[in-house]
Amino acid sequence: MKTIDDVEVAGLRVLVRADLNVPLDGGRVTDDGRIRASLPTLTALTTRGARVIVCAHLGRPGGKPDPRYSLAPVAARLGELLGDRVDLATDLAAARAAVAALRPGGLVMLENLRFNAAETSKDDAQRGLFADQLAELADLYVADGFGAVHRKHASVYDVALRLPHAAGYLVQAEVAALSRLTADIRRPYVVVLGGAKVADKFDAIGSLITAADRILIGGAMAFPFLAARGGKVGTSLLEADQVDAAGGYLDQAAPGQIELPSDVVAAAQRAADTPHQVVAADAIPADQMGLDIGPESAARFAASIAEARTIFWNGPMGVFELAPYAGGTQAVARAITGSDAFTVVGGGDTGAAIRALGLADDAFGYVSTGGGASLEFIEGKTLPGLAALED
Fold first, then answer.
1. What is the mean pLDDT of residues 357-367?
2. What does 4-23 look like in DSSP terms, one character per residue?
3. What is the pLDDT of residue 79?
4. Which of 85, 137, 236, 258 lies at a 20 to 30 A Cα distance from 300?
5. Which residues contact 338 (CB under 8 A, 6 or more apart)?
6. What domain range is 54 assigned to?
7. Residues 194 and 286 grouped into a single domain
8. What are the backbone angles phi and psi of residue 45, rounded to the nearest 5°?
9. Global pTM?
10. Mean pLDDT of the chain
């Protein structure tokens, strides 16, 4: 695939698909990691005289405008990081006017792409019409939103088919780092899985069993496996239809290949001021939920990480945003930073977790912006947003 270094961009209108899906709190960006990750590409393009149009999504607004999901706070934060105001075009008419007024080196941002239902439509024709409208704004398309490349969305896939295209620096870096998890892997290869988005990661486990020497499972990911072993998980986050699949993975794995928590920190509800206790992972009281792996599990996971030469970590070990349930994630993070292994940390929640714990991104081998995208890449799946860039 071509990169932005292969293209002369001076004077061109360049549509950059970024990944700016960041957490907000009352209109304030609480973790700007993904915005910062977009800076190298945006800075390179504006410095070289391109007229840049940034587009992205935020959350799941349901295909219609919703002020809760406006990119206005993101535009404001991007402007702060760039040292210049970033205007937000609220609709396509405003976008056309803003692009027409752009001078070389200028930049404008489009409002949340998912305010238009066609962005995520499964109907090729409907999605294509929206892609036509986006493509009319630009002379060149640049893919730099790695976290969305596994989606066959208008701005990710269809626009790239309509315009000359290139990969941005972030997509280049992601592909280079993740490729090291698919070929010539240094062993032992240890995978750490966690987080609450169980469905997004569950299908990947079969491929990981084939590739990894050991898989450490914490967070909500662990509960289907504990339940499959007959454990009592109380009111913990659990999707019943995943229990059978988890049992199948346990049967498929080699003895000891999948490592589950032996203890968890449990409480009656997800709140920092609720009384909590450490209990056996397979004997959580009926009125309580597991909110973090326990200290014994954290120590065992850290010991497995210490033996690794390659590590892939996707998903925190608990509700790290609340102090009583951050210990497991912190233990895993510190074990990884103390390791000499090549490490890829994947997923927005995982990146946010390490930054919330005061750990810098450069303390790890590579911090990926893609959660589902990074998993599907190392599974060997075809990612639409990357396939569309191939010549």
1. 81
2. GGGS--TT-EEEEE------
3. 97
4. 236
5. 306
6. 4-173
7. yes
8. -70, -45
9. 0.87
10. 94
